[in-house]
Design brief:
By secondary structure, this protein is an alpha/beta fold. The chain is built from twelve helices and ten strands. It folds into three domains: 105 residues, Rossmann fold (3-Layer(aba) Sandwich); 63 residues; 183 residues, Rossmann fold, CATH 3.40.50. The structure holds guanosine-5'-triphosphate and magnesium ion.
Length: 373
């Protein structure tokens, strides 16, 4: 895949922000094994209904892609099915959007039955309204213009098959969810009667969530320097001072403009977030965009109705900013991070004691409040 990236900027998104977003899009292209040949930014107050960018610009992109031998043009925002159709007609190569890439990455990473079903559900939900375009291509092959050729019938049939499959997947996911709840109940039932605190680790993709889980509980999980390494939730326990048992759960990473189809499909997995007593929000402070990333994660938490839960920020990868653990004390405390924040390095094990202390503190408050209820 040889890609050209396209984005827009305006009063809402500055040119700088749009560029950063394209940089991330480039990362997504790499994650599906593609290469980025170049990018184009257009200043537009709002996307064009028909072409997203201007028709003239689309033509220009067509020329560029022919000139460079690009075989796909990727837009940074979700396109409507008709925009995809119109753009492909002008540009002459495959047109994708951010959602297509993210779904593709998720699909290549999915290993468990549940993750696979969730991705398939997202893909089918995404494809359903786009069948029409493919149907038109089919009717061109099948019948004459304007006749109700086999193309349209075929689209109808495919649409019905997809709808049935969506229904099936939802039922199976419901069943998995039910079993997961029973499992969770069993895990939460404490044999010795010690209090149990549920901490869910969330954060932008690649922030270091799985590495932190490993550092805190010793549980081996897959970590990698790539987007969306984790697709399944994993839970692991640790006893903390005071005899409290803390259950840490690792989750799928979030990203800016996370496709709604994916949030919807991953609700079963993300249910752990809504069940949490405390949210541990991991932030990669060595990334220039970390403040943006915090907002993106908060946005998803809002969509999961979990924005009111107590949060502890783990400001991770401090070792990339300073050389020694002692120096982390001099890092400017990010005043805007609302609430508790601890500077850590999951990789070097820095700040984990402080982090546990914060968790115990907040955990006592939460558990006491639960007792009062
Ligand atoms: N230098 C440094 N690297 C870290 C630290 N924590 C994690 N990493 C690296 O960052 C990369 C991502 O770490 P993961 O733990 O896989 O991140 P994640 O948040 O689970 O990512 P996804 O599952 O993809 O959302 C890996 O290459 C880790 O080795 C840290 O404290 N310091
Ligand atoms: Mg992970």
């Amino acid at each position: 895949m040889r890609a050209i990236l396209v984005g827009i900027w305006n009063r809402d998104i500055t040119k700088e922000e749009a560029k950063e977003s394209l940089k991330e899009l480039k990362g997504l292209v790499e994650a599906v094994g593609g290469k980025t040949l170049g990018w184009i930014l257009q200043n537009r107050s709002k996307p064009d209904a028909k072409y997203y960018i201007g028709a003239g610009k689309a033509q220009q992109i067509g020329e560029i892609s022919r000139g460079t031998g690009a075989d796909v043009v990727v837009f940074d925002d979700p396109l409507t099915p008709s925009q995809v159709r119109n753009l492909e007609r002008i540009i002459g190569v495959t047109v994708l959007d951010r959602t297509d890439l993210v779904i593709e990455i998720f699909s290549s990473r999915a290993k468990s039955r549940e993750a696979k079903l969730q991705v398939e559900l997202a893909r089918l939900t995404h494809d359903l309204p786009r069948l029409y375009g493919k149907g038109r291509a089919l009717s061109r092959l099948g019948g004459g213009v304007g006749t109700r050729g086999p193309g349209e019938q075929e689209v109808e049939i495919r649409r019905r098959i997809i709808k049935r499959r969506i229904h099936q997947i939802k039922e199976e996911l419901e069943e998995i969810k039910r079993r997961r709840r029973i499992q969770r109940k069993r895990r939460e039932r404490s044999e010795t009667g010690e209090p149990i605190l549920k901490v869910v680790i969330v954060g932008y993709t690649n922030a270091g969530k799985s590495t932190l889980l490993k550092a805190l509980t010793g549980r081996e999980t897959f970590t990698a320097d790539m987007l969306f390494a984790t697709l399944d939730t994993k839970t692991s326990a640790r006893l903390v001072p005071g005899g409290m048992k803390v259950l840490f759960t690792d989750t799928v990473g979030f990203i800016k403009k996370l496709p709604p189809e994916l949030i919807e499909s991953f609700k079963a997995t993300l249910e752990e977030v809504t069940e949490a007593d405390v949210i541990l929000h991991v932030v990669d402070v060595s990334n220039d965009r970390w403040i943006d990333h915090i907002h993106a994660v908060k946005e998803v938490l809002r969509e999961l109705s979990a924005e009111d839960k107590p949060v502890i920020y783990a400001l991770n990868k401090a070792d990339r900013i300073v050389d020694n653990e002692e120096d982390t004390e001099h890092l400017p405390h990010p005043a805007f991070v609302d609430g508790r924040a601890v500077v850590v390095s999951a990789e070097k094990g820095w700040g984990l004691g402080n982090l546990i202390q914060e968790i115990v503190k907040i955990g006592c408050e939460v558990l006491n409040a639960q007792l009062v209820k």
